[in-house]
Design brief:
By secondary structure, the protein is α+β, with helices and mostly antiparallel strands. It has one domain: Gcn5-related N-acetyltransferase (GNAT) (Aminopeptidase, 3-Layer(aba) Sandwich). About 30% of the residues lie in helices and about 30% in strands.
Length: about 180
């Protein structure tokens, strides 16, 4: 039986499955060069954003369709997106991701939404391990990873088609197991 991603509620956020109705929000989000600083290093054009996101918007992934992308909404509207994407070779392993509008930075939304996805992934889906990655120089994202309980796992220097400032310092991955999640204070 194929399930779908549920709506997840937190104190301030409604995380709903990302769909075509969020297209304009994604265009605005990825059209902000500062939001894309550690991803592409530049704002993305509308056509580029839609080409990437339209196929993703309504796709469920992994473990009977309960993983994928969520749009985060607050009383003020679209905050950003969060995802849990299964590893292609291990359905018990998933990558956590998030991207927020600049106006939402520093408000605790990244932490709040990420904790909701971790709870969903570990408690409802039964994932064994969740991980996230970013550039070493992206201190804000690394702080979120640490705040939600993810533990440093490794650093590596990859190859970039279009290197961004700081690429030479590498990428970092942080992770958390289901046992660590359940044993947290």
């Amino acid at each position: 039986m194929l399930l779908t991603r549920p709506v997840l509620l937190t104190e301030r956020l409604r995380l709903e499955p990302l769909g075509p109705e969020h297209a304009e929000d994604l265009v605005a989000l990825d059209g902000d060069a500062e939001v894309m600083r550690y991803l592409t290093g530049r704002a993305r054009a509308r056509a580029e954003v839609l080409e990437e996101w339209l196929p993703v918007m309504s796709r469920n992934a992994g473990t009977d369709g309960r993983l994928g992308y969520w749009a985060g909404l607050s009383d003020a509207g679209f905050v950003g997106w969060w995802c849990l994407n299964p590893a292609p070779d291990d359905p018990g392993d998933a990558e956590l991701g998030y991207r927020l509008r600049r106006e939402a930075w520093g408000c605790g939304y990244a932490t709040e939404g990420s904790l909701a996805l971790l709870a969903h992934g570990f408690d409802a889906v039964g994932l064994a391990h969740v991980w996230a990655q970013t550039m070493v120089v992206n201190r804000a994202s690394r702080t979120v990873m640490e705040r939600i309980g993810l533990v440093f796992e490794r650093t590596w220097v990859g190859e970039w088609n279009e290197p961004l400032p700081g690429w030479e310092q590498g990428e970092v991955a942080y992770g958390l197991t289901r046992e660590q999640w359940r044993g947290r204070p």
